[in-house]
């Protein structure tokens, strides 16, 4: 399991010109590790996640997810790879109001065509992994913010992705609950071997990451990681 971005550049149209969102980005994330990406608003963090998650195609460069180069895949092939190999934890949980916690996870697996019985068992295992098995029958309005985010994480991991992309998971939480969510993400990354990218603006949460890189004007820079490394993580 791994994620690699090689010489990735992404631009957007802007008043008749092109605005550079990512500028020759190189980033490698081995399985079982967390790479934290920090930067101010507008620095390119969201664009980085969109490209890594195969939601947006860069102008140039290559994106490799768990050994598969997605550059030349069709739109349908990318959607299938994303469904099976990429988990995304959104900034807001976006749970469906009418579904219970366990049903939130079941939807993900049923989309992938799994049988109903196996799906429920897998969903309960997923909730147990994030400490939410006892809340399986509760709907979002019956859960705290931290509990909703735990369901969000379990849902992202439902199909055993190779890559986990996490967008500001603590923005709506207080410091204590935020630290607990990051600790949970780190533990699950180690246990499941996912290549995890954590985007955050909160530097107090970076101690759990294996690597920290900064991003500014679409360029990766050394971000104060334990080894002071620049924007590329060597392959495992």
Describe this structure in words.
The protein is an alpha/beta fold. The chain has a single domain, classed as P-loop containing nucleotide triphosphate hydrolases (Rossmann fold, 3-Layer(aba) Sandwich). It is built from six helices and ten strands. The protein has helices at 45-52, 75-85, 101-111, 116-129, 145-156, 175-192, and strands at residues 2-14, 17-30, 33-38, 60-65, 68-69, 86-89, 163-167, 195-200, 211-216, 219-222. Helix 4 crosses helix 5. The longest helix has 18 residues, at 175-192. It is globular, with a radius of gyration of 17 Å. The termini are close together. Mean pLDDT is 87; it is low at 224-236. InterPro entries: AAA+_ATPase, ABC_transporter-like_ATP-bd, ABC_transporter-like_CS, ABC_transpr_LolD-like, MacB-like_ATP-bd, P-loop_NTPase. It holds the Pfam family ABC_tran. Keywords: ATP-binding, Nucleotide-binding, Transport.
Task: Report the radius of gyration as a whole number of Å.
Answer: 17 Å
Q: Biggest sheet: strands, sense, closure?
A: 6 strands, mixed
Global structural class: alpha/beta
CATH architecture: 3-Layer(aba) Sandwich
| Strand coverage percent | 25-35%
Instruction: Write out the CATH superfamily name.
Output: P-loop containing nucleotide triphosphate hydrolases
- The CATH class is Alpha Beta
GO molecular function, one term: ATP binding
InterPro entries: AAA+_ATPase, ABC_transporter-like_ATP-bd, ABC_transporter-like_CS, ABC_transpr_LolD-like, MacB-like_ATP-bd, P-loop_NTPase
Organism: Streptomyces genisteinicus
Domain ABC transporter: 3-236
